[in-house]
Automatic annotation (TrEMBL), chain A:
Belongs to the STXBP/unc-18/SEC1 family. One of its GO terms (biological process) is regulation of vesicle fusion. It comes from Ostreococcus lucimarinus (strain CCE9901). Gene3D superfamilies: 1.25.40.60, 3.40.50.1910, 3.40.50.2060, Syntaxin Binding Protein 1, Chain A, domain 2 (3.90.830.10). The lineage of its organism: Eukaryota, Viridiplantae, Chlorophyta, Mamiellophyceae, Mamiellales. One of its GO terms (cellular component) is early endosome. Signal peptide: none annotated. This is Uncharacterized protein.
UniProtKB/TrEMBL annotation, chain B:
The keyword Cell cycle does not apply. Its main location: Golgi. This is t-SNARE coiled-coil homology domain-containing protein. The chain crosses the membrane at residues 227-246. GO terms for biological process: intracellular protein transport; vesicle docking; vesicle fusion. PROSITE patterns: T_SNARE (PS50192). Residues 157-219 form the T-SNARE coiled-coil homology domain. One of its GO terms (molecular function) is SNARE binding. It is a single-pass type IV membrane protein. It is found in: Golgi apparatus membrane.
Length: 565, 247
């Protein structure tokens, strides 16, 4: 099972059932992203889609010779707009595909507007979440992401955000054709609520839809809260995909915006980093900084070899060979310059912002066992004028999470920030993160110090020494999915909502769908992909309300603080 | 409704694309047959192949003209994007076919060459080398045998001259096609780039719609101050003035 492949199959089918003749693909602001990550412009062009636009009321010229393939979310607003367009007869015929379950009432509303019987078919194709990677999905909650993290304060926007998560998760379950056992992290009210809402849809509201023939094995849905591990989104990252997201940001549709780098040529200012379309990226997305440098160099060398060969055009035979390989040559040169540009931008930012120095201290704080040593290192780092305020604040947040009970040392650190002129509200984030992500709010053993075994392995680990000081950290999710895959997650920590599996066979999932409220990190998608690569018989699909980097996470913390959370 | 003219052009081009596809299939078969050992001296499949190559090149040229004319029948500006995309799709298909064609020709050339090295012609050359290498003594050998060798040599030469001509023809066709495809290549989107993204193109459409709306507003505004309006005002004033004068 591969989520993006399933989505792509849906899109192909949509375009195939409206076969023959020219088509317009009409989408909405959410579905356009769902489409973009699985299909390219040239792929839809090949299927005779000659116009792609967003559904809007503004009438444009009638195009009766085009068939409209409408792929939108089943919202009241969309159905109304579509109804108005039907009246204007913009297109010759309409094939309507909703990205999720469409309420009966909306269908009737649509039918009532279709006086000229332009609608040929209405279907539900369950693709209501963006398949960021093969086994990863995100919902792009944007502004409401922080509201979701604090369900203590109920508001309309929280309700809408929760609903959006329910819709996203259920569509993923439908496209995977699974009715899962549902469990959540005990300590999170948000997780409990979301799990209960999903269970209601799956076992009551749409019970018929989820009545799939029992396949061998069981699917489990595990709903977690970002605040169970507030450490991972704060750490500097050193693997390709995570690093690019941390430093420049990757959009939910795999785009990287480098428009601020004026030195780059026009075609390199906006890039696409997708494992689906870029073989080099697919191979190196989890490679660390050092290995990546070597891979990029090898890529350049290989390309140079080819260019040299192609420059030596002496005979007509050489020419023919070159002309024949030209399209590939051109595509390759674009790819090479993309990765070279990214690599050189990354390295210049890393050295300019002293990210390696900061990262070393971060890792020491999070993975080390020597509190006094960590404290001195953080103090030294705070006094390093070359570190940006962003990095310094992150260090204090991490120290506070790790050594929550050392009130006086935390106070010393915030005092230093204060003296450096960091604003009072920024410093207040230390309190916010402890309130939501501190020991009392957590379920998982974030620092591996609760059990004797955890502590022992940590000490042993520190004795053994580490291969790479910058990438010692393993996200909490890594141990959570391993326990879940073995069926050894404790019921009291991760209770089931709705039916719970009986018998040892059902307790071990064959598919594990993990959803993290508040967002996932690329360090976590890496862990999941690496787990899947082991082929243990359990496939992990990871989803989140968004894909976080440190900047976005700190921003969400700030919003939480402003909302009084 | 009435089908716009550019849609007809697209259909023409699509028909050509289909015809090229069929001819290429024919060409592949002809090549395969031409490479089989040919014992009777009848000029066979290579002639067929040559004719097909000519035909395909002609079709490529015609299709190129048809594709380009899609955007030249300028009617209904609102559909410009649709037209460009239709053009793009055809250009992509034609490009793919041209790559196939070139690859096919190249493969055929390679096989021809290896046959020339190792085939009957080459055998003739080899025996000639042996013959002359053996020196004067060989001429003393049986006359009948030497006659046979001479004939083989002659035949090998004709074959190789013929083949050279064929090779030149094929290279010409590849070059010809390169020139045709040069203009169309501007229409082809590089895969894996931002230009090949649905969301990017959607943004572009939205931006151009917005731009169009702004221009419309601007046009309305400037209409109010256009020379014609000013003239009308002046005339009005003059008419009123004249009426007063007459009274």
């Amino acid at each position: 099972m591969d989520l993006s492949e399933a989505h792509k199959e849906y899109v192909k089918r949509m375009l195939d059932v409206a076969k023959g003749g020219m088509k317009a693909l009409v989408c909405d602001p959410v579905t356009v992203n769902i489409l973009s990550v699985v299909m390219s412009q040239s792929e839809v062009l090949a299927r005779e889609v000659f116009l792609i636009e967003q559904l809007h009321e503004r009438p444009h010229e009638e195009m009766p010779h085009l068939k409209a393939v409408v792929f939108v979310r089943p919202t009241r607003e969309n159905v109304r707009t579509l109804g108005k367009q039907l009246k204007q007869r913009t297109y010759g015929e309409y094939h309507v595909f909703f990205s999720n379950v469409c309420p009966e009432g909306l269908l009737q509303e649509l039918a009532a507007e279709d006086d000229d019987e332009l609608v040929v078919q209405v279907q539900e194709y369950y693709a209501d979440a963006t398949a960021v990677d093969r086994n990863t999905f995100a919902l792009e909650l944007g502004e409401s992401n922080s509201a979701l993290m604090n369900p203590g304060q109920w508001s309309r926007s929280v309700g809408m955000a929760v609903d959006r998560c329910v819709e996203g998760i259920t569509s993923v379950l439908l496209s995977l054709k699974r009715r899962p056992f549902i469990r959540h992290q005990r300590s999170s009210e948000a997780a409990r609520r979301l799990a209960a809402d999903v269970a209601r849809v799956v076992y009551e509201q749409e019970a018929g839809l989820f009545d799939f023939p029992r396949a061998d094995g069981a699917a489990h849905l595990l709903v977690l809260d970002r605040f169970d591990d507030a450490v991972t989104p704060l750490l500097s990252q050193w693997t390709y995909q995570a690093m690019v997201h941390e430093i420049f940001g990757i959009s939910s549709t795999n785009r990287v915006d480098l428009r601020h780098v004026k030195a780059l040529s026009k075609e390199l200012r906006e890039l696409v980093l997708s494992a689906r379309e870029d073989a080099f990226f697919a191979e190196n997305m989890y490679a660390n900084y050092g290995d990546l440098g070597a891979s990029v160099k090898a890529l350049v060398d290989e390309f140079q070899q080819q260019t040299k060969m192609s420059k030596k055009i002496e005979s007509i035979d050489d020419m023919a060979r070159f002309v024949e390989s030209y399209p590939e040559f051109r595509a390759k040169s674009g790819n090479v310059s993309k990765h070279v540009a990214l690599m050189s931008e990354l390295s210049s930012v890393i050295s300019q912002r002293r990210l390696m120095a900061a990262s070393q201290v971060e890792q020491e704080v999070v993975c080390g066992t020597d509190r006094a040593g960590a404290f001195t290192q953080v103090v030294d780092a705070l006094r390093n004028p070359q570190l940006l305020e962003e990095e310094r604040l992150k260090l204090v947040l991490l120290f506070a999470l790790r050594y929550e009970n050392e009130q006086s040392q935390i106070a010393d650190l915030t005092e230093i920030l204060m003296q450096q002129g960091v604003s009072r509200s920024r410093i207040g984030l230390v309190r916010t993160i402890l309130k939501h992500g501190g020991e009392a709010a957590r379920t998982g053993d974030l620092f591996g110090n609760r059990s004797f075994l955890g502590r022992a392995s940590k000490v042993v680990g520190s004795l053994k020494g580490v291969e790479n000081v910058y990438t010692q950290h393993q996200p909490l999710l890594s141990s959570t999915i391993q326990s879940a895959a073995k069926g050894s997650l404790k019921n009291e920590d991760y209770p089931f909502v709705g039916p719970s599996p009986n018998g040892a066979a059902a307790a071990k999932p064959t598919e594990l769908i993990v959803f993290i409220i508040g967002g996932i990190c690329y360090e976590e998608t890496k862990v999941c992909e690496q787990f899947n690569a082991l082929k243990t018989g359990v496939t992990v699909v990871l989803g989140g309300s968004t894909v976080l980097n440190a900047r976005a996470f700190v921003d969400d913390l700030r919003k939480l603080q402003e909302a009084g959370g | 409704g009435v089908v716009p003219r550019w849609v007809e052009r697209c259909d023409d081009a699509a028909r050509d694309v289909e015809a090229i596809r069929t001819s290429l299939r024919g060409l592949r078969e002809a090549h395969a047959k031409a490479l089989l050992p040919n014992f009777d001296d009848v000029a066979g499949e290579d002639v067929v192949a040559e004719a097909l190559t000519k035909e395909v090149t002609k079709l490529f040229k015609r299709c190129d003209v048809a594709i380009r004319s899609v955007s030249e029948t300028g009617e209904g500006d609102g559909e410009e994007r649709v037209r460009v995309n239709a053009q793009r799709k055809l250009a992509m298909e034609l490009n793919k076919l041209s790559q196939d064609f070139r690859k096919q020709q190249k493969d055929y050339l390679a096989k021809l060459k290896s046959q020339q090295d190792r085939g009957p012609g080459a055998a003739g050359l080899d025996s000639y080398a042996q013959f002359s290498g053996a020196g004067a003594g060989a001429s003393a050998g049986g006359g009948g045998e030497s006659m046979l060798r001479m004939e083989m040599l002659n035949r090998a030469e004709t074959v190789s001259i013929e083949r050279d001509r064929e090779v030149m023809k094929i290279l010409e066709s590849v070059q010809d096609l390169g020139a045709v495809m040069k203009d169309l290549s501007a229409l082809i989107i590089d895969q894996g780039t931002i230009l090949d993204r649905i969301d990017y193109n959607c943004q572009e459409v939205a931006a151009s719609v917005e731009q169009g709306r702004k221009e419309l507003v601007q046009a309305e505004k400037s209409q109010k101050h256009s020379v014609a309006i000013v003239c009308i005002y002046i005339l009005l004033v003059m008419v009123i003035f004249m009426t007063f004068v007459v009274i």
